[in-house]
Design goal:
With 430 residues, this protein is an alpha+beta fold. Helix content is 30%, strand content 27%. It is built from 13 helices and 18 strands. The strands form 4 sheets. The chain has an 8-stranded mixed β-sheet. The protein binds one RNA strand of 76 nucleotides through strand 1, strand 2, strand 3, helix 2 and strand 11.
RNA sequence: UCCCUGAUAGCUCAGCUGGUAGAGCAAUCGACUGUUAAUCGAUUUGUCGUAAGUUCGAAUCUUACUCGGGGAGCCA
């Protein structure tokens, strides 16, 4: 008999099959026992009755515990009540291993307890749903860019000193070349790739040694970055909007069961498919002043300001053209206002920033001066400056945080549940 | 780095102005032919985070430390 996965079980209605999996849950009475069998693709209920099964099967079933691994022979029957539409009449059970005292019970647990057992926590229903959605989001992102003929150009993870200033870097020894650093962004490399292939993106882990302890921060997270030659800041925002909507639609189409188990309503997700709102930084400051914020024009928006701004909208909001002093050295000066740069942040109501974007400074002199003004050494940016020497070009790009996107789409409050093994200030194992 | 908050049974927590601990769940045993966080009955469970101090007496008050949780800054 061929091996069968539970998600394909409908194709075997009224047949007898062999299945392998784990006991997700068990309950029963004197004459009937229910096993929820989980194999990673689905959970389907199996039934053992004292009448339909032999005594040995009944006794084996009685010994089963949560997360015991088993192999069963069963008849697949219809069962309209269940999610799969099927149920299993169990004829025979072979125990692979009885799991003793599985620590994660059916009742509530605290975050520290669960994080220390992340390797086991992943087996829970909610965690499996989140991981499935995450996987589909990754797929959607790749599909989106490939459909548009982008080239996937990965950036290095180990780098020299080059990179954004501000955030702290993780460092490691690199032979006799001193320290190497784990990348905080692939952007500068992606700009080089962009000059070679026009429309490019990279997707990989990034590392920030920030001592952030909030529900939106990880020290290791996955970021997709895209860079497009001859795109200005407007084009850039259009691209982000199209991409974000594509991803949301893909999840709606492919993950209905997972969204349901997460308690995420499709109507709420559809709010992310409406046209996004756009607000310039200066208009945002005006709006904030009307609402009673004490923000000083020229200073960065605080977390409270972002909440205040987005609560008027149900769709994501672009805030564009921030003050130069709040943003990175590589952003292009706004030709209409030398104190502003051509950039945007995408804020999602009830969550916060998910995408950071900008048009890049393409003038050699201005960029060199920016590097100096930001207290950086132009010599360590020599290859980056080359891009402005040999056929400089207007270009723009952005970075979207994968885990934040998963959070926003699944409605999961804390980012630590959106990555298989989260790395945070306080957690490095498992 | 700063602010707030917490650490009591395997888990989640209660324990008031000091008098050496309690609930629910889990586990174990039992009851029940359809349950789906099954239900019902019974039983078991503790260096009260660590160290010192105040006191006749500390889970409770004081100090320090350790480890969490939430947030700010920073960002995705």
């Amino acid at each position: 008999m061929a091996k069968i996965w539970l998600r394909d079980i409908k194709d075997h209605l009224n047949q007898e099959v062999w299945l392998k999996g784990w006991v997700f849950n068990k309950r029963g009475s004197k004459k009937i026992q229910f096993i929820e069998l989980r194999d990673g693709t689905m959970v389907v209920q199996g039934i053992v009755t004292i009448n339909d099964s032999n005594q040995e099967t009944w006794d084996v079933c009685s010994e089963l515990t949560q997360e015991s691994s088993i192999e069963i022979r069963a008849q697949v029957v219809e069962h309209p009540k269940s999610v799969s539409g099927c149920e299993l009449i169990i004829k025979e059970i072979k125990v692979i291993q009885i799991a003793v005292d599985f620590p994660i019970t059916k009742k509530e647990h605290g975050p520290d307890f669960l994080l220390k057992r992340r390797h086991l926590w992943l087996r829970s229903r909610l965690q499996r749903s989140i991981m499935h959605v995450r996987s589909q989001i990754i797929k959607a992102l790749h599909n989106f860019f490939h459909e548009k003929n982008y080239t996937h150009m990965d950036s290095p993870i180990l780098t020299g000193t080059i990179g954004e200033e501000g955030s702290t870097l993780f460092s490691t020894e690199y032979f006799d070349k001193g320290n190497a650093y784990l990348a905080q962004t692939g952007q500068l490399y992606l700009e080089a790739s962009c000059a070679a292939l026009g429309k490019v993106y990279c997707f990989g882990p990034t590392f920030r040694a920030e001592k952030s302890k909030t529900r939106r921060h990880l020290t290791e997270f996955w970021m997709l970055e895209a860079e497009v030659a001859f795109n200005n800041n407007e084009d850039n925002m259009d691209l982000q909007e199209e991409m974000f909507k594509y991803v949301v639609q893909h999840v709606i189409d492919t993950c209905p069961l997972q969204l349901k188990s997460l308690g995420r309503k499709v109507e709420d997700l559809q709010k992310f498919i409406q046209p996004f709102a756009k607000l310039s930084y200066d208009d945002a400051v005006d709006r904030l002043h009307e609402k009673g914020s004490k923000i000083v024009r020229g200073k960065d928006l605080g977390a409270e300001d972002e909440v205040m701004l987005t609560q008027d909208y149900e769709m994501p909001v672009f805030i564009y053209n921030y003050p130069k002093s709040c943003k990175a050295f590589y952003m292009k000066k706004d030709p209409n206002n030398s104190e502003r740069v051509l950039c945007s942040d995408l804020l999602v109501p009830g969550y916060g920033e998910v995408i950071g974007a900008s048009q890049r400074e393409d003038d050699l002199e201005t960029l060199t001066q920016n590097i100096i003004d930001f207290g950086l050494n132009p010599e360590s940016f020599d290859w980056y400056l080359d891009l402005r020497k040999y056929g400089t070009f207007e270009h723009s790009g952005f970075g979207i945080g994968l885990e934040r996107t998963v959070s926003v789409i699944t409605g999961v409050k804390h980012i630590r549940e959106t990555i298989p093994f989260p790395r945070m200030m306080t957690h490095i194992e498992p």
